[in-house]
Amino acid sequence: MFVYCDTAATTPLSKPAFEAMLPWLQTGYGNASSIYKMARDARRALEDARRMAASCLEVSHENLYFTSGGTEADNWAVKGAAELGGEARRHIVISAVEHHAVLHTAEYLKKKGHPVTILPVSGDGLLDPDTLRKALRPDTAVVSVIYANNEIGTLQPIAELARAVKETDGKILFHTDAVQAAGHIFVDITPDIDLLSVAAHKFGGPKGIGALYIRRGVKLPPLLHGGGHERGGRSGTENVAGAAGLAAALKFMTENRESFYKKTLASRDRLIDGILSAIPYSRLTGSREHRLPGSASFVFAAVEGESLVLQLDTLGVAASSGSACSSASLDPSHVLLAIGLSHEVAHGSLRLTIDHARTKDEMDFVIQSVKTAVERCRGMSPLWGGGAPLRMSGWE
Ligand SMILES: *Cc1c(COP(=O)(O)O)cnc(C)c1O
Fold this sequence. Notes:
Oligomer: single chain
CATH topology of the largest domain: Aspartate Aminotransferase, domain 2
CATH class of the largest domain: Alpha Beta
Helix content: 25-40%
Bound molecules: pyridoxal-5'-phosphate
Number of strands: 14
Structural class: alpha/beta
CATH architecture of the largest domain: 3-Layer(aba) Sandwich
Strand order of the largest sheet: 2-8-7-6-5-3-4
Radius of gyration: 22 Å
């Protein structure tokens, strides 16, 4: 058996997305900015995709701009909003549990002279609106808070956080990275939200396409300069097949949202309960209650996350430790440290993320596999002995 448990890293292309893309990869390859019929057809497909995606997100198509993915959308939003603030507003506020696309963008801007505040979160990974309110300054340009965390699945009270910002100072722009949320749960794009990022490959669409929602009236300067595509917002030859795939995938997810949510949640709960009861010295990370339906994340005492992932691979389970992007580094994830875990405990992290297509049998197989893999890791660990961790730091 092989069970894919890494949908937070990427998802398989859904059938509706694949089918919607094919014509634009084969005969309909015209450049959507040219003027002959073939190109006009591509342009129509692009605009149809924009309308469909916008209608799924319940926003106007005029406010949706295609990008090359979530990373670009996040960079555009944060850098653009920082630039828009001018000399008077240079301060940037983010949470401590942002995706690297926002975190590293803020760090880059800090080097360029922007003051940056990184807000602490609770043990569940939640940002308190009062903490946010207190961090705002007269020179704050932009606040960026992740909608749903990619590592621990925690859902932020985004509407409330955006409200707190706007109540304090209507001129501060509010951005949210909704890459993990879009398609999976209802994403409430309230009037307080100025900017919102999505990425197709996290909801059954193709890689290399995403979108940034920009509220009407926000004159975000472009990140990429060139031919003035996307109404001057984002230059670069339009990815028509990608846009068609993004829209079809989002439509498929939106139409089936309730049933997919229920199925995913049932599997996810089976997984969490099964793992916590089968494996001693295991702990769920992130909020149990305010959580993405497909997210299960843990720490295990006296286990090294990377080894665990490799063990699981040999057993037929694709999983991740922390986020895929940070797997190359030895530092524990900034998200796990932000929720208060020690370096030692954070090193034993495992993330299992699933979609609606997973079955009970598959979940039972995954539980058994994680149990076996954890036992194998502990069997080789100098930190484990006599059925318990030898050093209890962080576990008492
Ligand atoms: C995957 C992801 C991104 C990056 O999106 P890409 O399309 O892979 O560039 C940004 N934010 C979050 C929360 C993500 O999960």
